[in-house]
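User: Hey, my collaborator sent me this sequence without any context and asked if I could get a structure. I don't really work with proteins. Can you help?
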Amino acid sequence: MPDTSSPRLDDRPLIPRPDQAVPGDSDGFTLTTATRVSADPEARGTLAWLQRELGASTGLPLTTGDEDDARIRLSVDPGAGLSPEGYRLIVDEEGAIVVGHDPAGVFYGAQTLRQLLPADVYRGAPLDGVEWTLPAVRVTDAPRFRWRGVMLDVARHFVPKREVLRFIDLLAAHKLNVLHLHLTDDQGWRIQIRRYPKLTEDGGWRTESQVGAGTPAVFDGRPHGGFYTQDDIREIVAHAAARHITVVPEIDVPGHSQAAIHAYPELGESGRIPVWTRWGISDNVLAVTDGVLDFYRNVFDELLELFPSRYVHVGGDECPKTQWKDSESAQRRIREEGLADEDELQSWFIRRFDEYLTARGRRLVGWDEILEGGLAPGATVMSWRGQEGGVAAARAGHDVVMAPTATSYLDYRQSESPDEPVPVGTLLRTEDVYTAEPVPEGLTEAEAEHVLGAQVNVWTEHIDSPRRLDYMVFPRVVAFAEQVWSSGDRDYAEFEPRLRGHLDRLDAAGVEYRPLDGPHPWQTRPGVSGW
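Assistant: No problem. I've predicted the 3D structure and written it out in structure-token form, which is a compact way to encode the shape of the chain:
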């Protein structure tokens, strides 16, 4: 009879799939009240995280010891033959060792160690009768891409700070390392700017919201709003940094700016206008005067104090040119700068902020419309309108993050069932996310090097509660995490059984994901919303 008393590696599915995972010969190692842990100085951040997370779920003290008596040991060793963010994890009857190329690598190794424990390790308090045994294994692993991102739109529907912090924890559990916060749009301005308080006092609130995507538009009649104070942002950034996640801020210009124009009408071309209550593309855009440029430079001055990210997103998408065609100041700017048309005017506008950010050691990133009219020299392109923008940018020598709508928009419907909530966009199943390839076909090896990675985007026009956020993001973001982390071929038939096992962890963590077999009944019942 086979020995089934000890957990086997295939009972603890690893997601994302590591480069190498070789089962050991022993029965593994069981955590007890006597288990001590240690870390070298560069790994102490992960040690604190591990003690806090495992201590809460197991109830074990996991006290800090020295290297000689610790049974779980964490260390950073750039000379260990690992790639950046890579790690080696060894579990045997003596304990567990995690070695990382860098502190991020140690953290990811600790996340894998956590997955080797029973799924109840993702709970916030211990249960009786759980044996906390790690199966024997040797794992060597590193990510395929440097940019493994998720964009969270907090402008359309405000996401409270507590939910952002929880979201960060869930991204970290899947070895994702970029949170792109879409902070401003026509429907709301979500970040405190001390110099311009009306941006949040007035621009952070709208009178009502469009419900659904039908025509004619229907509105809920309820005010909606909210914003993050600068101290909130500092907390979010610090929480993310402790989990090796970079928070990339986005201030959308020159389109998608109606909330800012409502707060300061001199920014626009049409006087005072309301914060927009509809979804879609507003014709209201920023003026291109020196005063507007100075205003946004002042905004970015404060933004750079809060976000240490090398990359700063300036939007640049869906900017109608109608108002500029009829604007005396815009047409004067075109003549003075020797520009050909309004497309080049938008490029000129974006270049001003590329110069600004470059002078401060930062890199501008924008949606692929920034290619129109000529690309700013130091800009990174986020390709969303298919892969074409990414291909063009990579061939021109610009760095690229791939986020095409067909495989990256997590607000899109997950089946053709009429029970799917607000079935917008095209069909995007978990399988479609998993099998998508970030590097476009036809790029040379040198051009492909410009593909930093990929991200999925969570637009929140139709996501107005934490339950709906969970439902739209999970488990598709789990599939995405493996897409951007794991090397080699991807076979959904191999992945799906591991994903089903991984859902036990999401259950333990309280994630209200969409079941793989169809819409959850609560999503089809009216009245379930609200943060």
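In plain terms: The first helix runs from residue 44 to 58. You can pass these tokens on to your collaborator as they are.
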